[in-house]
Specification:
By secondary structure, the chain is mainly α. The chain is built from six helices and three strands; from the N terminus they run ααβααββαα. Helix 2 crosses helix 4, helix 2 packs across helix 5 and helix 5 packs antiparallel against helix 6.
């Protein structure tokens, strides 16, 4: 069952590919592809792969790998591409949300990459 209403999908600038990008964590964290399929309501992993390919064509680096912990296929943004993905996600979020400045600040705080522990 799709999580987006007609009101969502009819907003100017709405993009399922960008919604997927905004759902991805920076590596080494990842999200199961099956969860993205469910959360985005796209119906199949093939449909999610089409969205990932759309993002790749747009210049984003998206990693899809096999989980070593039984989660199936997992998806993430490599750390080298995280800042670009985060900034694009913030621009997208601001363009489609009613309370854009508050939403963008919240998204940035929620999606910040984990701190690297000092050696």
């Amino acid at each position: 069952m799709p999580v987006f209403t007609d009101a969502d999908t009819l907003r100017p600038g709405f993009s399922l590919a960008m919604e997927l990008l905004c759902s991805l964590p920076p590596a080494p964290a990842s999200v199961p592809l099956s969860k993205l399929v469910s959360d985005l309501g796209v119906g199949s992993q093939a449909a999610a792969h089409e969205l990932i390919e759309e993002l790749r064509v747009a210049g984003f680096t998206i990693h899809v790998n096999n989980s070593t912990q039984g989660a199936g296929r997992i998806v993430s943004v490599p750390r080298t591409g995280w800042l670009r993905a985060l900034e694009a996600g913030q621009r997208y979020w601001m363009a489609i949300q009613e309370n854009a400045p508050d939403a963008a600040v919240s998204m940035a705080a929620d999606a910040a990459p984990p701190a690297v522990a000092a050696a």
